[in-house]
Design brief:
six-stranded mixed β-sheet, globular, Cytochrome c oxidase assembly protein, Thioredoxin_domain, SCO1/SenC
Length: about 190
């Protein structure tokens, strides 16, 4: 009986060790310190050793941001129900308009629970464009004479080492279960 239990545990351990995330990105996120929706400084140092999911949004967005934010709120709730320790970070791509107060009001349209969700602003358009391009391999561009901003629509899973592990659609056909599974894999490999 004990041999069977021991064999089962060894097989289970080997199976758990073998899980990897296909096509892992391994993109380092550059250091940043911005301001969150409460007006407090928040940056990469606050995320050190934590798994987090990021996206890029803005409060005046007329197209992709409302569904992306709704999907992020749903993913956050699903992660909470599964007991996963994960942070969520939304970078405003329109920092000249998006004050901490505007970001807080915007997020509350989607959830009342902002405990581990950090909506960031407090930087220049050039700074967020550079961070998006260098760290997340995506575009942020505000055309002249337009209040809309062109930006990527992905969710980014970032590991405790501060590197982007994987990207996912944040607008339609969001792979919630895959993201949650990947969070578990990253957390188990710590």
């Amino acid at each position: 009986m004990w041999k069977r239990i021991a064999l089962f545990l060894v097989v289970l351990l080997l199976a758990a060790c073998g899980k990897t995330i296909p096509d892992a990105k391994n993109w380092p996120v550059e250091d940043f310190t911005f301001v969150d929706q409460t007006g407090k400084p928040f940056g990469l140092r606050d995320l050190k050793g934590k798994v987090w999911v990021a996206d890029f949004i803005f409060t005046n967005c007329e197209t992709v941001c409302p569904p992306m934010t709704a999907h992020m709120a749903k993913l956050k709730e699903m992660a909470k129900k599964e007991g996963l320790d994960v942070e969520f970070v939304s970078f405003s791509v329109d920092p000249e308009v998006d004050t901490p107060e505007k970001l807080a009001a915007y997020a509350k349209q989607f959830t009342d629970d902002l405990a581990n969700w950090h909506l960031l602003t407090g930087y220049s358009p050039a700074e967020i464009s550079e961070l998006a391009q260098k760290s997340f391999k995506t575009i942020v561009q505000k055309p002249a004479n337009d209040d809309q901003v062109i930006h990527g629509t992905s969710f980014y899973l970032v590991g405790p080492d501060g590197k982007v592990v994987q990207t996912y659609s944040g607008v339609q056909d969001v792979p919630y279960d895959t993201i949650l599974e990947h969070i578990k894999i990253v957390q188990s490999s710590q």
